[in-house]
Structure formats: structure tokens, C-alpha cells
Amino acid sequence: MADIKLGLIESRFADIIWESEPLATKKLVSLCEKQLNWKRTTTYTVLKKLCERGIFKTENSIVTSTMSKEEFYAIQSEQFVDETFKGSLPAFIAAFTKRKNLTEKEIDEIKQMIDSFKGD
Predict the structure, then answer these.
(1) In the predicted structure, residue 43 carries a pLDDT above the cut 90
(2) What pTM does this model have?
């Protein structure tokens, strides 16, 4: 898959689509004008870039996502762990917890997730 990383503004744009899809390009232009203060050309330029990256698609002037927001962020998380921690989830968790103390509830939730994977 092509680079699917999003900058801050692209993320806000993507959220507009995810929250409103399917939507007509005309409606997307209107939403971006109101929420991002964009001109029509800016909306179409960013939409084209994100379609080329495989995140969204436009057919018959209707914009839809090719993946859910949750799927997108799961891929982002995987890429981050791969690039930053050589794919090691334990190394990521160790780095994360050095600066943030986990609550008992968070620890229990993580244990439950791990236990659920053991059963698969």
C-alpha cells in the first residue's frame, strides 16, 4: 500500500469524510469550506492525493472510504511500531510505559487482550 500517513490537516479532512460518508463531492466541498475554510480547488486537490494513496475513492461524484477509520489507524500503528521499534510490540510498550504509568484497569485490559490472543 502507498504511504498512508496523514498530516494534521489531512487528518481533519479524512475525519470529515469518515463522519459523513458516503457523500457527494459537492457536499464535501461545502463541508470543507465551512470547517477548514478551504476553496473548492483545495478540497479536490487533497481528495485526489488521498484517493491516490488508497484511503478514499470517488465514483460518480460520490466519495467513500476504502478502509474504516479504525482500520486506517491500525495500519498507522503497525507502521509506527515497525519503523520505530523494528516491529517489536514489547519494545513499544516498554518505551510507552516509561513516561506514562498504566492504571490497574489498563493493565487488566491489556492482560485480557493478551489472554484472548492465546486462545486463538
Answers:
(1) yes
(2) 0.74
